[in-house]
Design a protein that fits this description.
Layout: E1 2-5, E2 10-13, E3 21-26, H1 37-55, E4 59-64, H2 71-80, H3 84-101, H4 117-129, E5 133-136, E6 139-142, H5 158-164, E7 179-184, E8 197-199, H6 201-213, E9 217-223, H7 227-242, E10 247-253, E11 256-258, E12 261-262, H8 273-279, H9 282-290, E13 298-299, H10 302-316, H11 333-343, H12 348-363, H13 369-379, H14 391-405, H15 412-424, H16 428-440, E14 443-448, E15 451-456
Helix pairs in contact: 1-9, 2-3, 4-6, 4-7, 6-7, 9-10, 11-12, 12-13, 14-16, 15-16
């Protein structure tokens, strides 16, 4: 299996530190707002890596942190008259629901920054004792120029970084390049050897990674926007504190763009996962993301998502046969082709082509095709189960249909009966209005000899 290592900018053979075991860390969310399509791209990408490593037989420990102490959380708390904990708890729950809705597996370990403060303080103390950090007026800063490899991950020479570095008002840095390990904060802070304060963003991931996975880990992944300064700073502080290599393989996914601009909250051009799921199901969003190589930018458009929806429909409408547990799936050429594609730096677009080949074969009654399709599709996180609505969601959709048709419906059976009557009376205008109203809320009717049923599109 080969992966692109951002640190060396090379595609390298993946060799874990410990045979058959993989320690994998992914930078998680700062929980203060809705997750958006950019987050979906990131976490679906690494969900697929996690699934595929397990498919390959590795014993994987996947750690993804939760940043629940941050300037953005504090600003939201002040604005809404809440405690930072109330804000982070609410938005963490929302984030978890969004990840589940996207069919992302839960990480093995999901540590919170506020529960790992002791480890952060311990690393900061080590860095001060070794001369890599210094206290200044209640803040603690890392001496960037004491780490000769600084800038290697982001491929930015130190002199180039110096030209853009600034010291903000109130900062007592020795050098503009130095970054905060600990910040003085008497209002929302925690006790520390340097007074009441809170951790800098970068130290959080170094501490949680070390505590739960060890000093050197196999894989550290995240969005390309984190390469600098976050991951660059993580390397510097971790390697100086631990005295050893921090990460063997750095992996980064590309941006989601709208009109060629990166999707982000700061630009105000983001689409939340909740909004997307109103129009497209989890399989469609996953398909849209996986048709592109993970390192490349993805240009969002309704046309692209509609094309993905059509692709998913084609795959999920494959002729289904009972799953054959007796088959040795590794014997089949399509299995090998799928593995070759995924082993080539997670070439998911090629892997999807294998799934389409199996779809065609399933439709031609090739005996093993559906079993293999089902197994490989699950490895990419697709599900063949039809989406279901909660009672509350169904009630909401019935309300929208009732409003559009000007008649109160309390169940889908009533709507199906009205359509049946309209068709029997050749009242095509009413039948068509019902079809359009259902289509607008993402419901389609299926007619068969046994009667009419409904399902989500």
């Amino acid at each position: 299996m080969k992966l692109h290592n951002s640190y060396t900018n090379q595609i390298e053979e993946f060799i874990p530190i410990e045979e058959n075991k993989v320690k994998m860390y992914v930078c998680g969310p700062t929980v203060y707002d809705n997750a958006h399509l950019g987050h979906a791209r990131c976490y679906i990408t690494w969900d697929v890596l996690y699934r595929y490593l397990k498919f390959k037989g590795y014993d994987v420990t996947y750690c993804r942190n939760v940043t629940d102490v941050d300037d953005k959380i504090l600003k939201k708390a002040e604005k809404e008259g809440k405690t930072p904990e109330e804000v982070s708890t609410f938005w963490y729950k929302k984030f978890t629901e969004s990840m589940k809705a996207l069919n992302n597996l839960k990480p093995d370990i999901e540590p919170f920054a506020t529960k790992t403060l002791g480890e952060m303080i311990a690393i900061t103390k080590d860095l001060i004792n070794k001369g890599y950090a210094y206290e200044a007026g209640g803040d603690v800063y890392f001496r960037v120029k004491k780490f000769p490899k600084y800038g290697y991950l982001s491929k930015q020479p130190i002199d180039q970084l110096e030209s853009g570095a600034r010291i903000e008002v109130g900062e007592l840095k020795e050098d503009p390049l130095d970054f905060a390990l600990w910040k003085k904060d008497e209002k929302f802070g925690y006790n520390s050897p340097w007074g009441v304060g809170r951790p800098g963003w970068h130290i959080e991931c170094s501490a949680m990674s070390r505590k739960y996975l060890g000093k050197t880990i196999d894989i550290h992944a995240g969005g390309a926007d984190l390469i600098f300064p976050h991951h660059e700073n993580e390397i510097a502080q971790s390697e100086c504190a631990n005295g050893c290599k921090f990460v063997n393989y750095w992996l980064h996914n590309g941006f989601v763009t709208i009109n060629k601009e990166k999707m982000s909250k700061s630009l105000g051009n983001f689409l939340t996962i909740d909004d997307l799921l109103k129009n497209y199901d989890a399989n469609t969003i996953r398909f849209f993301i996986l048709t592109n190589h993970y390192r490349m930018p993805v240009e969002f458009s309704d046309e692209a998502l509609q094309a993905a929806a059509n692709g998913v429909k084609r795959m999920l409408n494959a002729k289904q046969t009972p799953l054959d547990e007796t088959l040795n799936l590794k014997e089949f050429d399509e299995y090998k082709e799928f593995v070759d594609a995924m082993d080539d730096d997670l070439n998911t677009s090629k892997a999807l082509a294998v799934l389409f080949d199996l779809t065609n074969k399933a439709n031609k009654d090739v005996p093993y095709a559906f079993t293999l399709l089902h197994y490989l599709a699950a490895t990419l996180g697709f599900t063949f189960e039809k989406a279901k609505l909660s009672d509350e969601e169904l009630k909401q959709k019935l309300g929208e249909i009732s409003a559009e048709l000007g008649e109160n419906f309390s169940s889908m059976d009533e709507i199906i009966e009205k359509r049946k009557k309209a068709r029997a009376e050749k009242n095509w205008d009413i039948a068509d209005k019902i079809r359009v109203a259902l289509d607008n809320v993402g419901i389609v009717l299926k007619d068969s000899k046994e009667g009419t049923t409904w399902e989500l599109k």
